[in-house]
Amino acid sequence: MFRAILIDKTATGSEARLASLDEAQLPEGEVTVRVEFSTLNYKDALAITGKSPVVRKFPMVAGIDLAGTVERSTSPEWKPGDRVVLNGNGLGESHWGGLAQRARVPGAWLVPLPAAFTSRQAMAVGTAGYTAMLCVLALERHGLKPGAGEVLVTGASGGVGSVAVALLSRLGHQVVASTGRPGEAAWLKALGAAEVVDRAALSAPGKPLQKERWAAVVDSVGSHTLANACAQIKYRGAAAACGLAQGMDFPASVAPFILRGVTLYGVDSVMAPRELRREAWTRLARDLDPARLESLAQAIGLEQSLGAAADLLAGKVRGRLVVDVNG
């Protein structure tokens, strides 16, 4: 038997609860993982609270992330004792997820846990940090180098934003953090932000083309914030968009793209190719200061994740929530 956050369909939507399940109930897969830590992400919070139709079939074990140790395997790639990490691939949406003490998954979904990280540290990174690294990789492939100018990070107090601030600053970039929580300014500067700006400066409707300021942008907010950020990107700069906290609309014009040659990269973490996943985790192990992970994350137990989901959606959580599934 193992404990898990189980989401069941109800007459009015869905309901999440702490459940005790039998391993025989686990879905098909070549590898059984003894989960040590998971996380609570924005998507997890939507699924647990039922605020958005994240879950595609019921019942569903929540959790889009996990880190732990292989317990059993019929895959030639993996053997008992291997340390692994998994992000996305439908986990917690169409396949039972990581907010549980056990998981069974296809071997092709797993990535080796870098030796630089403990399983707890890997989940302090989680999908949010892994997505932030994918954004950084996209901008680097575009040509972004230290010294190019200011790099804007929106939603900087959240999971993706906080890791992006820490990564970009350590790589030598001048980072400007945008947040709606001015009380977090000192924390963001400790992560490496050179300046902190109020999200209100970007979140209202703005002109289609504005004064050039940003060499690049990492955006997890969407809507008017992303539109304004793009309108302020310097000639031939780029934005990496990976979230929709403000909304999934994009009320912008083509002006920045055809008059300044701006590029907008869409960053998907759920179905990213395995080679890109491995590259992202390798770079995270190299470029993310483990000491800063502690300031990014706070630990909660499995049952606490039920209440924490509402707090996360309400913007009351900074950084990352690491879930000790055995705590």
Count of helix runs: 10
Radius of gyration: 19 Å
Shape designation? globular
CATH homologous superfamily of the largest domain, by name? Medium-chain alcohol dehydrogenases, catalytic domain
Q: Main beta sheet, described?
A: 7 strands, mixed
Mean of all residue-level pLDDT scores: 95
CATH architecture of the largest domain: Alpha-Beta Complex
From the N-terminal CA to the C-terminal CA, the straight-line distance is 16 Å
> Structural class, please?
alpha/beta
The SSE string, one letter per element, is: EEEHEEEEEHEHEHEHEHEHEHHEHE
The residue ranges in which pLDDT falls below 50 over 5 or more consecutive positions are none
Task: Give the domain tally.
Answer: 2
CATH class of the largest domain: Alpha Beta
Could you state the oligomeric state of the chains shown?
A: single chain
What fold name stands as the CATH topology of the largest domain?
A: Quinone Oxidoreductase, Chain A, domain 1
Beta-strand segment tally: 16
* Portion in strands: 25-35%
Share of helix among residues?
25-40%
